[in-house]
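User: Can you help me understand a structure? I only have the sequence.
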Amino acid sequence: MQQEWRFPNRATPEGSSAYYSVRFAPSVLHDDLAALLGWRHQVRAILDKVSDQGVARLKLQWWREELGRTFAGEPRHPLSQALQPVLERHQLPEDAFLDMAGRVESEILYRHPADEAALDAHCKQDLGALFELIARCHARTDSAGLQTARRLGGFCARVYLIRDSGALARQGRTVLPLEQLRARGLSAAALAQREHRDRLPELLAPAATRAHSALPESDAKRSMPGCIRARTAILESLLQELEGDGLDVANQRIGLTPVRKLWLAWKESRRR
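Assistant: Let's start by predicting it. Here is the structure, written out as tokens:
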């Protein structure tokens, strides 16, 4: 059953941004990266598959305990069994995985970031942590490189938040920091109502500007592995698409076609 977590797997389905970013990584890393993405996929799937908060927390705790078993060399789940040699081969830290689990727990408990700094930290906890692990798989272990990877992952997480804001608002989940909502006389619960959710384009305009400013300098981006650059290029294009459509995400999901993602990933892979 470990074979199901090889590339491509359910976390990297053909046509997805994750698929094309891994596709242009060195082939020797394809299965390793797919297993990493698989772990994030499994813990985040709890948010969509489990509606009971208590059950969701139990499932997340099981994955935390399974992570401990995996680092101890006693994995039980087929994904963990596929992941264990990846951890050893690249000397990956447990903290980055726990960061991703912590982000999921915050969403299970509806803990909304209080301000912009907290939102930035949350985004770096999620895809930022994943990008750090990806960078480590490419032998990037220097502090500056790992910080850049976290920033790029944080940028991508911000773009996904903007894209998914309509669906997240309907669920009462994180869209904007609480201080920004309160300044407009709103709350996360209020955004679940259609009359307030229709204000999302207005509310998200500053968020899009901040997402652009979250990107590191060009030289720092160019130093990153092609896998990370490809995913970032796709998300930069998606942000432009969202802005071009006036951030009209309240009742629709805006995305890029697989051909467009392929082109962007291929083009980025050719950069030196």
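Now, to help you interpret it: The chain has one domain: 2-269. The two ends are 38 Å apart (CA to CA). Let me know which part you'd like to focus on.
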